[in-house]
Amino acid sequence: MNEELTAVKDTEATKKEQEHGHVGPFIIRKAIHSTVYEVAVHFSQTSRETLKDKILRLIRNEVR
Question: Which range marks the domain in which residue 28 is found?
Answer without folding.
Answer: 3-63
